[in-house]
Specification:
The protein has 562 residues and is mainly alpha-helical. It is 44% helix and 9% strand. The protein has helices at residues 58-68, 74-80, 85-94, 113-126, 130-140, 156-169, 174-182, 185-190, 210-217, 245-254, 301-313, 318-330, 337-348, 358-367, 369-373, 389-399, 414-418, 455-470, 473-476, 480-488, 493-505, 511-528, 540-553, 556-559; strands at 8-13, 18-23, 26-31, 33-39, 42-48, 234-235, 238-239, 258-259, 276-277, 287-288, 293-294, 385-386, 560-561. Strand 1 and strand 2 form a beta hairpin. The two termini are 15 Å apart.
């Protein structure tokens, strides 16, 4: 929120750091630090405030909701107009987790992909704990599992249970989440370490290295040593490797001896309960980790795993690595090093001496000045990110209340039409690489989500939007609210354009796009009226607004989150 000092009337000061201000006719009780000093016999004071100190303007509220939820709704924007950003986040952090599993009806749903996707949309569109849900989705793109190319296509309830693990851990501690993911049968199956047996000692076979490599490369540390601001540490001008092949082998031996809780056979396992130790299959030999060597131990499955995860968690890379990944997934593709460093500092210490507190990390990410004001600050030209296709879809559904009263769509094969669906990435590297760079970008900049947006994908995505907006409107009545406002608002088309701008471009619509929106509506309205003022076609409103929606969805201003 941009505030002019001239807007304020200071009516009184109370004791301590509490102060009451009369601001634009409304009284706000604010927490701020007041500094005083004497100068030539005069008592001077200064007050330090941040944007999170004030209740939000509608556009600022919509921006926060675009970043921290699955998209703004009209009711949430209204709610945030009476709250500070920090108060809203605190309220979100206090809400209990909304899990997927309870939504499942009784019965065998092991093969029901569309049922799992429907439950995902129900929580994404309607759950009150939106911030937690959004964090969980971001974490699903770090701790990646997928139904593609493996037995998980037939284990949909297991995938749902895995996603609940991410929801539960989204605002917990990262170390705990690493353990829960490691012990999860879905991850054990996807990255092939369940069952993972001890090597035979003669070098003829070795433990599977799949998870050992990926938990360090993709889920916690990255392949190169980092500074706390996320930039590479260099040696002779080159980045320095985080781990060696010998250390990967050591971690691979740690992740041996884990089996499904019911049967040590993936064909029959339910994958809904954590894996258990099978000591006969565990490698009991010495293990080289990052900073230590685990001694040979015949009774060491649990203690080996704990020691290995502690070793990773203690590494200098984990704070900047996780912080930067989350910022890229939630706020902007190219955060400044200072932004990464500020969030990494909170990851390392939440202010109470606790490392890995994800609630504190989330708060640091969303309240940082670069998150709140980066679109108008000095780095504005490099700020923002391409919305993921599924985020565009939830944005549309939530803004227009397409599925009211807890309803949600059933999709099958969504990844084929828009290139994305929950837990349906083509590989453990997610739908996109975080270092992907589209041609033409300045050196050093990345554009991860553009990796989904190939030429042929762009065509199928546009066809998907055309089908959703133009041919499903009667079934879903998805544009009812906009049609009503289009007809009845006294301010007419300008008010309609304001609403579109707020909900879909968060107050950043250009004058050119705004003129196109209003012009398209005006032309359609003129064609719809007879000389006597009666309407020709009751569907013209739907056609007009449908056309506006399609034009909007194809615009860079909607596609880029800023």
């Amino acid at each position: 929120m941009r505030v002019l000092w001239s807007d304020f009337y200071i009516t009184c000061l109370s004791v301590g750091n509490k102060i009451s201000l009369l601001y634009s006719g409304q009284q706000h009780k604010l927490n701020m630090r007041v500094k005083t000093r004497l100068l030539h016999g005069l008592l001077l004071f200064s007050v330090v405030m941040t944007s999170s100190t004030f209740a939000m303007e509608p556009a600022d509220a919509a921006r926060l909701l675009q970043q921290a939820t699955f998209g703004p709704t009209a009711s949430e924007v209204e709610k945030l107009k009476t709250m500070t950003a920090e108060a809203w986040i605190d309220q979100q952090l206090s809400l209990p987790a909304t899990l997927h599993r309870p939504y499942l009806p009784e019965g065998d749903l092991a093969r029901s992909n569309h049922q799992r996707i429907n439950v995902w949309f129900k929580t994404a569109l309607h759950a009150e704990d939106q911030l937690r849900q959004r964090m969980a989705y971001a974490l699903s793109e770090i701790f990646v599992v997928s139904q593609v190319g493996n037995i998980m296509l037939r284990k949909q309830s297991g995938l749902m249970y895995y996603y609940d693990t991410l929801i539960n851990g989204a605002l917990g501690n990262y170390r705990d989440l690493m353990y829960d993911v490691t012990m999860h049968p879905v991850m054990g199956t996807y990255l092939t370490y369940s069952p993972n047996e001890a090597h035979d000692g003669d070098g003829a076979s070795e433990a599977d290295e799949n998870y050992a490599r990926e938990i360090m490369q993709l889920m916690s540390l990255g392949p190169y040593l980092l500074q706390q601001n996320g930039e590479y540490q260099l040696q002779d001008g080159e980045p320095v490797a985080t781990y060696s092949q010998e250390q990967i082998k050591g971690f691979a031996k740690v992740f041996t001896g884990l089996c499904y809780a019911d049967r040590c056979d993936e064909r029959f396992a339910t994958m809904e309960t954590p894996m258990t130790a099978n000591y006969s299959k565990h490698d009991v030999s010495e293990k080289q980790l990052l900073s230590t060597v685990l001694p040979a131990n015949p009774d060491s499955v649990k203690s080996d795993i704990d020691a290995a995860l502690d070793d990773i968690f203690a590494h200098q890379n984990i704070a900047p690595f996780v912080s930067k990944r989350l910022i890229q997934l939630l706020i902007t593709s190219n955060p400044t090093p200072a932004y990464v460093a500020r969030v990494a500092a909170v990851f390392n210490n939440n202010g109470k001496g606790v490392k890995g507190d994800m609630a504190a990390v989330a708060k640091a990410i969303f309240l940082d000045d670069e998150a709140r004001n980066g679109h108008v600050s000095g780095n504005a030209d490099n700020y923002g990110k391409l919305k993921e296709p599924i985020i565009m879809l939830t944005n549309y559904f939530r803004a227009l209340d397409v599925y009211p009263e807890g309803d949600a769509p059933y999709y099958y094969g969504l990844e084929g039409s828009i290139g994305q669906a929950p837990l349906v990435a083509n590989s453990v590297f997610n739908f996109f690489r975080f270092d992907f760079t589209q041609p033409g970008l300045p050196e050093g900049m990345v554009s991860p989500e553009f990796q989904i947006n190939s030429e042929d994908r762009w065509i199928t995505t546009n066809n998907f939007w055309l089908n959703e907006v133009r041919f499903k409107t009667s079934r879903y009545d998805s544009l009812a609210a906009l049609i009503e406002s289009y007809d009845t608002r006294e301010a007419g088309l300008n008010a309609y354009a304001d609403y579109i701008d707020l909900m879909f471009t968060q107050g950043q619509m250009s004058a050119a796009l705004r003129a196109q929106v209003i012009g398209l509506l005006q032309v359609t309205r003129d064609k719809d009226l007879r000389a006597d003022g009666t309407r020709k076609n009751q569907f013209f409103d739907q056609d007009a607004i449908g056309n506006v929606m399609i034009m909007l969805f194809l615009s860079p201003e909607f596609a880029i989150q800023r």
